[in-house]
Amino acid sequence: MPGFDAFERKTARKLDLATRQIALQIFARIVLKSPVDSGRFRGNWQVAIGSAPTGTDDAAEFPAGDAVDVKGPIYYAKMTAAEATMFGANAGDIIYFANNLPYAQRLEGGYSQQAPAGMVALTVQEFQSIVAAIGIELSFT
């Protein structure tokens, strides 16, 4: 049926777009909730499709200007890289967010006074509101 084929293509495009937008919003919230001392921890967040990111960013210096809930140079650099990666994401892809620094789990567990409740767990709790804010509603009627 010609009408159904067009509907199927349009729905697939919308689901792909929704996947990208939701993943980027999750990543942005994780990065913004991350504690910032030297900037190394925030600067080590990575996103990948299909397999978990490996390695760390061992830059000698990270630009100043970021703080918890503040969009500074590190935040914008991370989001630019994430947008480039997510450009190829489709619905059904496995998307990984990782921070491979040895102290990342300790920070997620509340070690930092800047992020006593962690970053990832809080963002997971916000999933439904993220989806709602993007305006995703699926109806099968």
Task: Annotate the secondary structure layout.
Blueprint: H1 2-33, H2 40-43, E1 45-49, H3 73-86, E2 95-99, H4 104-108, H5 120-125, H6 127-134
Antiparallel strand pairs: 1-2
Helix pairs in contact: 1-3, 1-6
Describe this structure in words.
- The chain has 141 residues and is mainly alpha-helical.
- The protein has one domain (2-134).
- The protein is 49% helix and 7% strand.
- The protein is built from 6 helices and 2 strands; from the N terminus they run ααβαβααα.
- It has helices spanning 2-33, 40-43, 73-86, 104-108, 120-125, 127-134; strands spanning 45-49, 95-99.
- It has a two-stranded antiparallel sheet with strand order 1-2.
- Helix 1 (2-33) packs antiparallel against helix 3 and helix 1 (2-33) packs across helix 6 (127-134).
- The longest helix has 32 residues, at 2-33.
- The radius of gyration is 17 Å and the shape is elongated.
- The two termini are 18 Å apart.
- The relative contact order is 0.20.
- The mean pLDDT is 89.
Care to give the gist of this entry?
With 141 residues, the chain is mainly alpha-helical. The protein has 6 helices and 2 strands, in the order H-H-E-H-E-H-H-H. Helix content is 49%, strand content 7%.
